[in-house]
Structures are given as C-alpha cells and as structure tokens.
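Holo prediction. Input below; ligand is N,N-dimethyl-L-histidine.
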Amino acid sequence: MKKNKIKSLKSDFEKDVLKGLSSYPKYLDSKYIYDQKGDKLFQQIMHMPEYYLTRCEHEIITTHQKELCSIFSDNTGFDLIELGAGDGKKTKVILEGLLKADANFTYLPIDISLHSLEDLQERLLLELPDLHIEPLQGSYFKVLKRLKRYINRKKVLLVLGSNIGNLNHKKAILFLKNIQKSMQENDLLFMGFDQKKDPQVILNAYNDAAGITAEFNKNLLHRINKQLDANFNVDQFKHWETYNPETGTAKSFLVCQEPQQVLIKKLDLVVNFEAYESIHCEISQKYDDATVAWLANKAGLEIVNTFTDQRAYYKNYIFKK
Ligand code: AVI
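Structure of the complex:
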C-alpha cells in the first residue's frame, strides 16, 4: 500500500479501513462497530439470554454493593471516575450504595460520545437527584491527563463490561499502564474481566440464536458502505465465531461466501474477496487469575481484591498502584 495514500486520508476510520482491507489476512477494528446503530445492537446483545457477561457483573456488584462502597469511600471525599459511560445500570448500583451510605463523592463518567454522556446524566439525575455528576467528554487518557485539579483527592477508576477483552495483551498492558500513570498511592482501579469457562458457553455468547451478534459485526460493513461510499454485499458475509481454550481468545470473523469485488469510493480502493475469505473483526479475550496478575504486573499494578459471581463466570478485580 502506498504511504502517500494513507497520508492523504482524513480520519482514523478511513486510514484503518484502508490498512485492514489491504492486508492479508484482512481485518477491521471492532471499535468501528459502534456508531448509533452499533450502540443499539450492543444494548440488545446485553439482553440476549446467551450473553451472560452483563448479568454476571450486575450480580457481583449487587451482591457486594456494601463492601465495594466501603472500600471505595474516603472520609475526605473522592472521585468515582468511569471510563466509558455505558448504559449506567451496573454503575447505578454502586452510586445508589454510595448515596445510601452518605459518601462524599463526585461521579465523573468519561466518554467520547457527548450524546451518551448527556443521556446518561439525564437518566441518572431523574433517579438519583442527589448525585454529584460531572460528565467529561473526550478520549479516556486525554481526559485523565486533564484531571490535574483532582490530584489530592482519592480516585476510584471504574472500567466495567470486560471492555479490556477487546484488546490483545500488548494493547491491554498499554491501556493498564496509561491508567496506572494517572493513579496515585491511595487510588483504586475496579475492573471487570470475563473468565475462561466451558468453551460452548463462550461460543454461544458470541453466536446468539437471534442473530444479533451477527448483525452487530456486519454493522462494520454497513458503516463502510454508508460512510465511505462502498458497495459491500453484506448478505454474502457469514458471522463466524471461534474460541481457543488454550489462549482464552474468542475471535469473530465475517466470511465471504462468494467471490466479491468491493469498491470503496471514498478510499479510491477496490477490494477483492475470494470465496470463503475472511475479515477478522473482534477479539474478546477470556482470563484467569494468572493472566490478570501477569497483565497487572507488567503495568505496575497490584491486585488487592477480587469478586466473582456464583458460577465464577466473571470477575471484578480491585487494583492499586
Ligand atoms: C464490549 N465488549 C466487551 C463486548 C465483548 O463481549 O467482547 C463486545 C461484544 N462483541 C460481541 N458481543 C459483545
């Protein structure tokens, strides 16, 4: 691929699509699934009977609400900073617990999407009118760097939903290192990690019978069609999930069932697919304690506590620097 071609492109989306679809084997970054339609599909996935992750984390937070709130709290006040606004349902359990305990805190959700933040704020304030909430729009680490004014106040950072699982180990370490850099001695990180389990349970979670996960992945191609003026015949692609119990990596692919030539006008690019050629779209890493301890160690973090659900499908870890 010509370097000049990449340079002339404006957005990261354009550059990444060009790079991924010009590579062999082809790949796309799952972060681009999340436009308005992708966000909605993910909300639906979280309600699918096969997608256990959200319910497990909700169970953990609900069961351990009191203990978590007491670990997080600080007499002199603290900031509860969430990376990713989400739909707020699990966070609401923590916020309710803290308000009930009369804790002195401010909730600072960080998200790239202003729309998600406004929506979250409106919903939370309706149900929890006493909540101090200061939404922060921007990318996580830029915002965390800006947060200098909170330097002498305890920070509790929340990363829920096993979002780290969508990063390979190298990127996950980088992500944790960036969080670690923003932390001080007294600060805590509360993070969810989906665990290794019966491979069939994992495969089912990413291959729901209603086909919502398939639609979710295919949204990548719909988005390229819409935003980059392309002509993917999306119906010819089949969603294909794999899980490797040795590495704990679930991978999703879109497999082209027939030969196809795609023109992506905005990139001035023609992409040829042979029959059964794939696009790798997402990884959803599953963990065990040893792997989480290894990641933490690499990032300069220490595990101080863990909480799991009844079936031990999912774990939330508390880290300190
Ligand atoms: C957001 N993330 C943690 C989800 C996961 O489980 O990897 C995204 C997802 N992909 C398919 N289903 C859900």
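The chain has a mean pLDDT of 94. That is the main takeaway for now.
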